[in-house]
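Q: Could you predict the 3D structure of Transporter?
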Amino acid sequence: MKKLILTGLIALSCFAQTVDSDLDGVPDNIDLCPNTPFLQTVNKYGCSKQQLKKLNKINYYFNFGYEKDGYKDYKDSNIFFTSISAKKDKLKAKLYFSVKDDGYSDGYKSNDLILAGYYYLNNVKNSNINLKLGAKIYLPTYFNDKTDYALYIKGTYYYKNYSFSLSEKHKIYGESGTNAKDTITASVGTTYKKLFISPYAYVENSAYDSGDWSKYLGMSVYYPINKKLGVLVDYSFDIEESANYTLIGSLGYSF
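A: Sure. Here are the predicted structure tokens for Transporter:
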């Protein structure tokens, strides 16, 4: 009986190693490019020239937008920003720059220059769970400014036409006497016709009082004009003080 079971396990193992679902001549267990179109010539890893070209392609994305921050006790802030990102396979790099008309004092403008990198642990095409890790460097943009850092993690679960996400950002300030700021965000996303709609909620503590947590609700809507161009509108507000809000509009172009 034991010999029969052992023989069966060996047979199953051999069968698993020789299964070739896309009929490209490379077994599934070592095929790095599954579902290769029929009649395409592949290398020893099951990838055709066309597939390798797509795998090695770097996708660029340019974004330009406007942000308005409203406050109950201060003058509203106006921010103009731009960013460019490059993504290849599971890696993504992003450079962000903004000019802010500060609401705390008239005539004062400040800049932000942020360099970010992300790594995707899972490929959404092959899994309904995706994990994204990231790090940001907030570079000094004025005299006596300090470098700030942030660590980021986001998990997303995909089910049918919906996505459920939970993320955490931990920002460390270079300025002494300033507390680290944590931002925890939960969101749901779905596609309605061409619109991608994502309501979300997040909480974050104050950099000056770690025990003071603010709670926000928001909605993000993305509309793809075509395959390369898209518009994003995002609005969020403080639950306890609705006069504190953020409104963002941006235009993105991929190439």
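Q: Anything worth pointing out?
A: Residues 58-254 form a domain with the Porin fold (CATH 2.40.160.40).
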